[in-house]
Amino acid sequence: MRQPSVIARRVAVASVSLAVAAGAAACGPKDNDAKGSSGDSTPHKGGTLTVLNSNPQEDFDPARLYTSGGGNVPSLVFRTLTTRNRENGAAGAKVVPDLATDTGRPNKDATVWTYTLKKGLKYEDGTAITSADIKYGIERSFAPELSGGAPYLRDWLVGAADYQGPYKDKKGLSAIETPDSRTIVFHLDKPEGEFPYLATQTQFTPVPQGKDTGTKYEQHPISSGPYKVVSNQNDGETLVLERNKYWSTATDSERKAYPDKIDVKSGLDSSVINQRLSSSQGADATAVTTDTNLGPAELAKVTGDKELAARVGTGHFGYTNYIAFNPTVAPFDNVKVRQAISYAVDRSSVVNAAGGSSLAEAATTFLPNQKSFGYDPYDLFPAGASGNAAKAKELLKEAGYPKGITVTLTHSNDKDFETSPEIATAIQDALKKAGITVKLQGLEINDYKDKIHSVKTEPGFFLAHWGADWPSGGPFLAPIFDGRQIVKDGANFNTGLLNDKSVNAEIDAINKLTNLDEAAKRWGALDKKIGEQALTVPLFHPVYKRLVGKDIKNVVISDWTGVLDISQVAVK
């Protein structure tokens, strides 16, 4: 995951798409029996599912989408070699076969991955899906005019770094072989035990070359999933999906595809969406949202109403909000100063600033608190619930600042309850008790991103966040702590500018593992090892609370996306 373009888009996705647009919330692993208020809770086929969103489903082309696990609405149209397991909770964080018969067969060192397609796979026009179509779909994602998707393959595939896509280079990628219509083989330039996770990305969607219309393909992409696009207006603001009659449950046990029609309406204010879902009048009774959470005020209102509370679900997506230090900037070049701030932080006040304990969980580890990431609970600088000012003062004295220090905390002015003024102020108040005077530097969101993602301008002390491309420690730790991913003349995300040979070597060693449970344990141990350097202060992991219409049934929320899986929803 060395590509700066990967990470640049990743942050945008984390704050807009992955954290909210991967699905619609309804209920989480512990309360996943929400079935709406109608009498019969058994899901049946038929009816229309309405989706009420703030953000349009732009760039509805599998090459251009950047999703986690294939996305939510996109996964109704685009099938991939593998997909996320469509189950509640931790079970949903597993990768399972989709178009392929298994999750992939690696060679001994995980540099070659082979897949066999299931028999009987068809597009919406009844033609057969072939391995050549998947190869072509991947190749077109390299075209500059179709950029935007997760470009790991540019970094992972042998000889792919400078490939410009099939429109300019008809030869294609020699690193992808299709010896027959059902077999596809990938040759990687380094071991990648997590290749099955990557194969869930929409770039692995089959695209028939004869039906490729370039940048216009998003208007009517050829469906390999249970639904086809019948209307796409204003770049995804309004999408209408209807059944693909050639899709079969015989080849797809993951997607339930209960509704006959999916009607996606975007460009709505978040308060309007939640009000419409709350009222559940007319078509809104069978509506969900794939990008709008309940805010603190809305949640308080809903919690006091039993009927509404029964329609609110809880989900967790792999995501961490944290304080970042640049150790090349004084006084943060002194580890004791970084440790002092770690002790002084009042996580209770930060959680309150993020919306309260219903919407945020205090974090002491960089990895999210889920098994699939390799979560290993540790608290290296125990601050308690409200901060340890005495310990912080002691460390400052040892660092040569017996009278305290004055520092500047950079944050965004965006009202995201993550890197925004509310969080910054909570930190400012806590650190004051430890003799640390914090001046706040609030920047408009674009200026903030430009400043913190440039090695040349990165401040010493700022708010940041990171989310998962898939539920594993790899895409979580490597971009932030692998020294080989430091980008000096572009978008940099190794905020601590860490280039520790032992850390880099362990990342490489874990990447070779195809036993993902064993890899998870190693990621957890590495998280703790890196944490000892106090380059970040984990603050909290977000919790997603979302409302569904009163007649929505069969709610499934996995730990992969943290939000309702639209492919499981029924309206009858």
TrEMBL record:
Stretch list, region Disordered: 26-58, 205-226
Keywords: Signal
Domain Solute-binding protein family: 94-484
Signal peptide (UniProt feature, chain positions): 1-26
Record-linked InterPro entries: Peptide/Ni-bd (IPR030678), SBP_5 (IPR039424), SBP_5_dom (IPR000914)
Protein name: ABC transporter substrate-binding protein
Naturally occurring in which organism (per UniProt): Streptomyces hokutonensis
